[in-house]
Structure formats: structure tokens, C-alpha cells
Design goal:
elongated; 3 strands; three-stranded antiparallel sheet; alpha+beta
């Protein structure tokens, strides 16, 4: 998660800056694609799925402060048939805050 955290911190700093006397705190979910490989009954498979990564972000008041990110959850959202079936426009809209997804709560 180190590479993801570093890129998220850079992304956050494009929208929010440290401010003297103010500690900024936010929480939310971002979409993340996870590609995994597995074997079942001697046959190998590839899985590409969309998950929502929950996080809490805190930005301290120091001028050169970097956001502190704590990952709070990882929820499965959707499985894809392959890289061609991924709707990148929708993922970009989610990251930009133009589109959101409400995950069902308290359901198996």
C-alpha cells in the first residue's frame, strides 16, 4: 500500500493545502482495482475486481506537512471480465468527486 499512499498524498495536496492554525480531517472511499492470480483444481485464473478503499486523512498545519492517511476498510464492489470491460471514465469521475457510490451497510 506504500505506493498507493504516496500517490494519494500527492493527489490530496493538489486540492488541499496546509493552513496555519487549522488541522484538516476528512474520510471517504476511493475506487481501487485489484488484479490477482489464483489456481483452482489445477487451472490458473486471473481476477480483476473493483474495491472501495476507505480512508481517513489528516493534514496538519505545518507549511510543508504531508497528509497522514489511515486505511479503514476495503469493500468488494464489482468483478470485471477483463481490462477492456473497465469503465475508466467512471473511475476517474469517482476520484475527481464528480460521481460517488453508496455501499450497502449491514448486509452480507
Amino acid at each position: 500500500m506504500g505506493a498507493i499512499a504516496s500517490e494519494l498524498k500527492d493527489h490530496i495536496l493538489t486540492y488541499v493545502s496546509p493552513e496555519k492554525g487549522v488541522v484538516k480531517i476528512s474520510d471517504g472511499d476511493i475506487p481501487i482495482l485489484i488484479k490477482s492470480y489464483y489456481v483452482s483444481k489445477g487451472v490458473s485464473y486471473t481476477d480483476i475486481s473493483l474495491y472501495m478503499l476507505g480512508m481517513q486523512v489528516m493534514l496538519m498545519e505545518d507549511e510543508y506537512s504531508r497528509p497522514k492517511i489511515q486505511f479503514t476498510s476495503l469493500a468488494f464492489f464489482e468483478r470485471y471480465d477483463g481490462m477492456d470491460s473497465i469503465k475508466y471514465e467512471e473511475l476517474n469521475a469517482m476520484v475527481a468527486g464528480q460521481k460517488s457510490i453508496a455501499l450497502p451497510i449491514r448486509r452480507p
